[in-house]
Specification:
Blueprint (H helix, E strand, L loop, with lengths): L1 H11 L4 H4 L3 H11 L4 H14 L3 H5 L3 H8 L6 H17 L7 H5 L6 H12 L8 H10 L9 H14 L13 H14 L18 H5 L15 E9 L7 E5 L10 E2 L2 E2 L7 H12 L2 E15 L2 E13 L7 E4 L1 H5 L5 H13 L1 E3 L5 E3 L2
Parallel strand pairs: 1-6
Antiparallel strand pairs: 1-4, 2-3, 2-7, 5-6, 8-9
Helix pairs in contact: 1-12, 3-4, 3-9, 9-12, 10-12
């Protein structure tokens, strides 16, 4: 099975930049970026990231706003902060070089069993198993696992299978048949062949060893304990400009969704169940005299289990300088600041549609 897998990988492997130079640092960056993000989305981000932060020292010394702006659009921004925290630890404790001992790697912020195994096996050909979305699907179908894959016993079984798939002994320099090849091949098989829907079983190199294929269980495996129940949610945002044409924004505080990013005034439940409550919340936040005006646009997006509709309104504010963390910024200034996904979309929409100042601190569509 292993031989068929790596033979297939030798001819089918995608040309990915971190595979050209699989240093521990580059593999680490790629693994973190690819968590819950499609590779096609990651590719341009990876290239820009490596150019700006070519090693752990550069990442450790990065300006947080610039780092978050670099990460903007990938989502799950905690990943970037964890990477910088890990980079600082690497500089302080390991001379700026990613640690090659498993326990040392595992102790870094944002790195768990899978990520540590992936980094060290791919970069250094160490015999460490991996289990993530793609390999979990491949392995559970191969062994015909009908129990939920997130149960403790299932996890133990799958990790054991992942370890047994690796060669017992291999030369560190043998990247063609060693753990580096086997682990990447298993992930690649899940990404290209053993897909969640409509797997390409007829061209799969492991089809004759697959229990799910033999019994027609492909659509039933992997089994999960419970499906996510999505909830609809309405949130509200306001667009406010001062007499100089600058927009009112804030840096989102720690603990909140998109913490550290910049955004327009925005709130939803429990602070704002409706537009009236949003008006009260915003008035408390920014002070002065506030009036919510016309509805400008609606935006839909998803965050974890929520399907959110954001209702954006024009607003006019009179009064002194707003309290921290609120401040006015030009569109050009916001271009260089990291913004939430909806904040960036809203800024781009306003710029593309064109807006003019009302002269009273509000904003109105161009005529």
């Amino acid at each position: 099975m292993r031989a068929r897998l790596v033979d297939w990988f030798a001819s089918a492997a995608r040309d990915l930049p971190w595979r050209e130079q699989p240093t521990p640092y580059r593999v680490w960056v790629s693994e973190i970026m690819c968590q819950q993000t499609q590779i096609a989305t990651v590719l341009p981000y990876f290239q820009r990231f490596i150019e700006k932060y070519p090693d752990a020292t550069a990442l450790a010394e990065a300006n947080e706003n610039e780092l978050m702006r670099m990460w903007e659009g990938l989502g799950y921004y905690r990943r970037a902060r964890s990477m910088q925290a890990a980079a600082k630890h690497i500089v302080a404790e390991h001379g700026g070089e990613f640690p090659l001992q498993y326990e040392d790697a595992l102790s870094l912020p944002g790195i768990g069993r899978y990520t540590a195994g992936a980094i060290l096996s791919i970069s250094s050909n160490q015999r460490l198993p991996i289990l993530e979305g793609n390999t979990l699907r491949v392995f559970s179908r191969l062994i015909g696992l009908k129990a939920p894959v997130d149960e403790k016993q299932s996890q133990a079984l799958l990790w054991s299978f992942a370890e047994k798939l690796l060669p017992r002994k291999t030369a560190v320099s043998d990247r063609q048949t060693g753990p580096a090849a086997v682990n990447q091949a298993a992930m690649e098989l899940g990404a290209l062949i053993c897909t969640p829907r409509d797997p390409k079983c007829l061209i799969c190199p492991l089809a004759k060893s697959c229990v799910a294929y033999a019994r027609g269980w492909q659509s039933e495996i992997p089994v999960k304990s419970a499906k996510i129940i999505y909830e609809s949610r309405t949130e509200y945002a306001a667009v406010i400009r001062d007499s100089a044409g600058r927009w009112l924004v804030r840096q989102i505080p720690p603990g909140a969704r998109f913490a550290g990013m910049w955004d327009f005034p925005k709130a939803g439940p429990p602070e704002a169940q409706d537009l009236t409550e949003f008006t009260g919340w915003l008035s408390d936040q920014v002070g002065g005299s506030l009036k919510i005006g016309q509805h400008l646009l609606s935006m839909k997006h998803a965050v974890t289990k929520y399907r959110i509709t954001l209702q954006v309104h024009q607003a006019v504010r009179h009064g002194p300088k707003p309290p921290a963390p609120w401040s006015f910024h030009t569109a050009d200034e916001l271009t260089h600041l990291p913004m939430s996904t909806t904040g960036r979309r809203l800024l781009n929409r306003l710029r593309n549609q064109g807006t003019v100042r009302t002269g009273k601190g509000g904003v109105a569509p161009e005529e």
